[in-house]
Design a protein that fits this description.
2 copies of one chain form a homodimer.
Chain A: E1 9-13, E2 16-20, H1 48-52, E3 53-62, E4 67-75, E5 78-83, E6 93-96, E7 101-104, E8 106-111, E9 116-117, E10 120-121, H2 126-135, E11 138-145, H3 152-162, E12 169-175, H4 181-193, E13 198-202, H5 213-226, E14 229-233, H6 237-249, H7 255-261, H8 264-281, E15 285-287, H9 293-304, E16 309-311, H10 315-319, H11 330-335, H12 347-356, H13 372-375, H14 395-405, H15 411-425, E17 443-453, E18 472-482, E19 485-489, E20 492-495, H16 515-525
Parallel strand pairs in A: 1-20, 3-6, 3-7, 8-11, 11-12, 12-13, 13-14, 14-15, 15-16
Antiparallel strand pairs in A: 1-2, 3-4, 4-5, 7-17, 9-10, 17-18, 18-19, 19-20
Helix pairs in contact in A: 4-5, 5-8, 6-7, 8-9
């Protein structure tokens, strides 16, 4: 692959700034800083002038719980004070945010960078994907470690390697693709020693990542005991396989066959199943990429009955419909192929509504990008089109425009579902997801009167296509501060490979509060064992 | 094949209530095909019967009329029929004359969990007739996965039948032979329904992959797919959990497989059937969870049938906590009887058509057999009675209580079953030309249920002590009075196997739906590559 970044990217180390003009290849060896693995101790020297001390003046500071006009003072990567009229010395960078919103940087709970999938690797690695994220106002993401031949530790090693060139903070989820004593033991190691607090189970991708109900139940039990959050990709893989065969038999081999082979009913089924089995084990469940009304309604029903279920729509599912898959141009149609698929018009609106009322809790992207050459692997057979779309750069803008500008949610809601709720669920709040004294200085300044426009020709990902091509809207992230450094300002990215830190995520988040009491209540409700004299019949 | 039993023309076997049923009492030759009995009946009790002055009830209409029966067939239904002296006349004034019950769900002579059900075809059917049921559909269980071997075995078991019966068939594995045998069963053996167990892990349970193959095959054959809907993997997990908690008694049975697991499997089966666009029949709907899935699917227009069973409608799970093992164990069935509240909800759904017909899952085991699980609820043979009690209990619970009309009663105890399994109006109706399977129910009489007086061979009864209004005073099966004055007159071998043809009404229009589906795809898209 000839990786290219498509706009200005600035790589800098200590006092030397390398400015890359548009289309310059990013050198993989441009790793000037060592990525810190542990919490907080970067081994990367940073520019005092751009990072040590920042004052954001006069903006509307928005947290999920409250918004107010205040100044924000940042020192050494940490927010030191949030209050009106902070006075500072001359060595402090002052950013005027009057009339703008000062908010926690976005946290994307669902990405796949440098993911080896369907015989190829996603076009965005950790550096380029994160660079794009920062340009779009996202300052942290959680990526999915895929085990290597089922081995969690090998997967963890591989992803640690992949993430060495990270330029923003990140965490890991981990997929579970087989079950034995070693996997069970390694789950414990991942949680207790490696900072992972969530495990994902694929109910789709038969013959590859898919697991059966028996493993799912074992996994749920283990997650519960570790205080780790169980996540599911919810589609019935057996039925998808059947649907794919049906399409091929009907002579439908193009991208539209992808959507037709795995309709929403199969997502609803698997969602309902995962929810009930999680309820049976009584462990919290996180449903990734809720793409359909069918799945959303299962989540709504479960939540209504008090079950601990979190539903994550993704920005593509919220905004797009499946019509692009019928485009006569293969390149155009293929770029929309993801799983679960984009749904017919109507689903997205329903998901927006559910998001606005808290039935769904946070927004991800499932950013998993392939370029049109890679997508062409499936030119003769939709089953071979690498599954995935972009979103890591576009999420914050599109959500603002779709949800806030349209009046569906408040600005505090926006912060909650783009950042705070993710931080709470993955147990890193208020270090992340808040503009509070003591929080990491991951901050965006959004100008509600400016506007954005999306195009593959101007985005920061390495792909030559963009599923949101041509979309524009109100609201623009004008400044992104990551770890106390201004990395995005005036349309310029200033990022350093290796400057991103791995964020340990401790187990037993708020979703686990009270589960022990529920269990005690469950046990006493059994009224068993009954004392019986053995009958002699 | 079941046609080797001699038939003695003028000899009927009279069984009084407590007489043990002799295995060798087989006097009539069981006919396998439709309509041609090889057994001649005494003219006095069989040839000609007139039922006078009753309220004749069909699912579509009720009227006061006489019913005239000749040679096992209903010849006329109209007021004031005049007959000669050679006709038996039964006075039904003030009583309801209705189609005999059809039980869509029984397990007679079923080899299960290390033993065999206490009621064989003759014993179970005798009990059925005494309770106003004149036909049942039993489940053929394949032998080592072989359908044809299973069919042979059940044909043998059914040789001593004393009432009409049909077969469903379970599918427990998948290969080319099973697929081919399904076709043979439908085209040559009179079977039009196949059941898939989503529970009983390691035994009858099948996976989604097989379920999808089975659904496809059912659809192509016009056969109805049925499911036992519980998540077997989760049940297995629940059983382990109970044992780990030291809960080994019958209450552990209910606790190990809660309603959520029935709801899950019901939803899954419904959606996968919808994905294949083939009709689905959910057997023994025991919980609100499962019922609501059916309600939702039907609301969307999906072809889904829900069958509650009489135990699920009128009992709750409290007795599983009884300190007496024998009492507790008799209530063990799967899916389990649910906590109070589920039964009433199922009754309500039945009354409004969300659920369509009532079965029993009659699968009786004696207390000695149930004691196989004295130390471990997982070894208690699963099953309860109901084949004899269903008609009475549904009458009392649903009609006497005012929840349904008498025509509704006929629909959900008989007519709907006949329609679903494509044998209406031969069965399930009091119409000229229908088989003379008729009951006379006296709404002013009453019934009482007890193991000491029932006709099953079991020494226990889950409905022990229940009583209510309405009594089946006469049962006529194939034109013979087999139950009258509390006396059974049944002949082993007199029951006939009823062929059930494929493509029942549930398949109407599926071809059009398929065509509509195909055109809705707007694919393949023409692309220049």
């Amino acid at each position: 692959m000839g990786p290219t970044l498509i706009t200005q990217i600035i790589i800098y180390f200590t006092s030397f700034v390398v400015q890359l003009s548009i289309f310059s290849p990013v050198s993989v060896s441009s790793q000037f800083c060592e990525a810190g693995i542990g919490y907080g101790d970067s081994e990367c020297g940073v520019l005092s002038s751009s990072m040590s001390k920042i004052l954001i003046k006069g903006g509307t500071v928005v947290n999920a719980h409250h918004q107010e006009i205040a100044d924000v003072y940042v020192q050494d990567g940490i927010i030191v004070a949030v209050k009106p009229n902070i006075k500072v010395d001359d060595d402090v960078i002052v950013l005027d945010a009057t009339g703008k919103f000062v908010m926690p940087g976005g946290i994307d709970p669902h990405t796949h960078l440098a993911f080896d999938f369907m015989s190829t690797q996603t076009v965005d690695d950790f550096f380029s994907g994160q660079a794009a994220a920062l340009a779009g106002g996202t300052t942290m993401h959680i990526d999915f470690v895929i085990p290597v031949n089922g081995s969690l530790s090998a997967g963890y090693e591989a992803y640690t390697e992949k993430a060495k060139n990270a330029c923003m903070d990140y965490g890991f989820h981990m997929a579970i693709t087989k079950w034995d004593e070693i996997v069970s033991r390694e789950m414990e190691i991942m949680v207790k020693e490696k900072g992972i607090n969530s495990f994902k189970f694929f109910l789709a991708y038969k013959g590859s990542l898919m697991i059966n109900d028996e493993l799912l139940l074992e996994g749920f039990k283990k997650c519960k005991s570790l205080g780790a959050l169980a996540m599911v990709h919810a589609e019935n893989g057996d039925a998808v396989f059947e649907g794919q065969k049906r399409m091929i038999e009907l002579g439908i081999t193009g991208p539209e066959g992808h959507a037709l082979s795995r309709p929403a009913v199969l997502e609803g089924e698997a969602t309902g199943r995962a929810i009930r089995l999680a309820g049976f084990v009584n462990t919290p469940l996180y449903v990734v990429h809720v793409m359909s009304i069918d799945a959303m309604e299962e989540i709504a029903k479960a939540r209504k009955s008090g079950q601990r279920v979190v539903g994550e729509p993704v920005v593509s599912g919220l905004l797009l419909d499946d019509s692009g898959l019928w485009d006569p141009d293969f390149t155009t149609a293929a770029k929309f192929v993801m799983s679960p698929p984009l749904r017919p018009s109507g689903h997205g609106k329903a998901l927006q509504a559910a998001l606005s009322t808290g039935v769904l809790q946070l927004v991800g992207t499932d950013h998993c990008r392939f370029n049109s050459t890679q997508k062409a692997l499936g030119i003769d057979d939709f089953r071979k089109i690498p599954n995935g779309v972009n979103g890591i750069e576009e999420r914050m803008h599109l959500l603002w425009d779709t949800m806030v500008e349209s009046g569906q949610i408040s600005v505090t809601d926006y912060v909650r579902l783009t950042s705070t709720e993710c931080a709470r669920i993955f147990n890193i709040y208020p270090r992340k997801g808040a503009i509070l004294a003591g929080s990491d200085a991951d901050i965006i300044i959004l100008n509600p009167n400016s506007s954005f426009e999306i195009s593959a020709s101007s985005d920061h990902s390495r792909s030559d296509t963009n599923v949101f091509e041509g979309r524009g809207g109100k609201g623009k992230v004008e400044v992104t501060i990551a770890g106390g450094r201004v990395v995005w300002e005036n349309g310029d990215l200033t990022v350093a490979p290796g400057s991103g830190k791995y964020i340990d995520m401790p187990p037993f988040s708020y979703l686990f509060n009270g589960i022990d009491k529920e269990y005690a209540k469950y046990l006493s409700s059994l009224q068993a064992p009954v004392k019986r004299f053995k009958a002699t019949t």
